[in-house]
Design brief:
The complex is a heterodimer.
Chain A lengths: L1 E2 L2 E2 H36 L15 H11 L10 H17 L9 E4 L2 E4 L8 H22 L3 H32 L4 H9 L6 H4 L1 H14 L11 H4 L9 H26 L15 H27 L7 H31 L1
Antiparallel strand pairs in A: 1-2, 3-4
Chain B lengths: L17 H4 L2 H13 L25 E3 L14 H5 L5 E7 L12 E9 L8 H5 L5 E3 L14 E2 L1 H4 L8 H8 L5
Antiparallel strand pairs in B: 1-4, 2-3, 3-5
The chains are: A mainly alpha, B alpha+beta.
Amino acid sequence: MTLLALDWILMLEKLILIAIIVFASLGIALYTTFSERKVAAVLQDRPGPNRAGPMGLLQPLADGLKLIMKEEIIPNSANKALFILGPAMAMTAALMTCAVIPWSSSVELFGRKIDLQIADINIGILYVFGVVSMGVYGIMIGGWASNNKFSLMAALRGASQAISYELAMGLSLIAVLMISGSLSLKTIVDQQMAPGAWWNIVYQPLGFLLFFICAMAECNRTPFDLPEAENELNMGYHQEYSSMKLGFYLFAEYVNMIMSSAVMASLYFGGYDIPFLDESTLAPNIAAILGVLSLLTKIVIFLFVFMWIRWTIPRFRYDQLMNLGWKKLIPLALVNMLVTGAVILWQQG
Amino acid sequence: MQALTNRGKEVSREPMSFMERIYLPNIFKGMAITFSHIFKKQPTIQYPEQKREFSPVFRGLHVLNRDEEGRERCTACGLCAVACPAEAITMEAAERMPGEENKYREEKYAAKYEINMLRCIFCGLCEEACPKDAIYLSETFAPANFTRKGFIYGKEDLLIPDKNKAPEEYAAAKGAARV
């Protein structure tokens, strides 16, 4: 069935896949807000939300309902179009990342081989970086359009922080790319999955550490949540926001966390690879499903570490943040890159 | 300057060593501490279902006591009002009429007895001042109210239910019913 020389079934298949992945990401993000509160609670010797539903499991739904039902306020002095564009952009940028993440190998359904990845583009990781940088616009536009000096200050902080940490992030990534020789996330994962191959974390421990720190800064997570420093900037760039627009900003942060966890898992921890198991011995469909579970487990572990760090370390001061980014992480990433390059050259003889 | 306690520690102003400057060891140490708290016992009390017990000397809401036959003990002598440092108590006395011997213990009784719970500081001096053992502080506390007027407790709020006629309400007023 070809019309307009398009494989319509492929289109349908991809649309369904997009719907599943987007809604799954949103659902996981919803419950990440809940687990954030639970993790915070148990780390502080308290039970956390436990009233809504069994063990408080309906709490995120109640939170979402509350946000939707709240009054929508757009300040008179705000730039209305940009004010609405800000949270939309933050959310879109956060969700767009999931397009290139290989969630698993392929499943066979109705005689068709379906890749569990929306798009295996050969510049996958560059695409991630491009889209993540767009998220800064969400912060910046939201903060500027609010016409509030605190929001603007917070937005400036957020933007400069994201830009300076992206540099170190990119530099530590280059070392991985030198090992794998490809920008496609699928290829990077497949190389780590190959029998006898190790995960990239073994070759790049320092690179991973740098990447992880930068990912935290990119997601505006504590200890790098300067844009939300309550005691200096009230609430941060989303101070004037209310109702679901605020919800979008808060939500985008969690989606970002999930996506950066997925990217880190794919780059350094073998993506959907199950450790100590040769997937080719399993039936392809079972291997694919186990792969999804494996990747999700890795994501959950990363999310827990994100939260664990948040409830352990206090916030950096702004000059310390810039110091760390420009004077420590970037030189370290450069050294890491040079050493990796030298070792690769030496191995090639 | 002399230290008040010997627990003070002098702050080290030495420049940080290399291990301190890379922060990571200390960060991991901190993370180990927070992680260990996952396994700690939670001191939380699930409030409406579980309640913390008051200490036996807790001074809560006042009750006006009855004697064994269910008669009011208060004779409206006014000593509690005199003793009250917050001036929260007012009362009006009345004479017992013939035929009311089963209601009031003595010839004089309090026709009106009011305590303003917003003024009351729950010091318990009224309890000490009372020569007739008529006023006691129970082990309950004043619930929230929408108006200031609602906090002026009259005799109908304060008088303890008759032990013989309504034992459950009696226990509740005393505060013994709490779990």
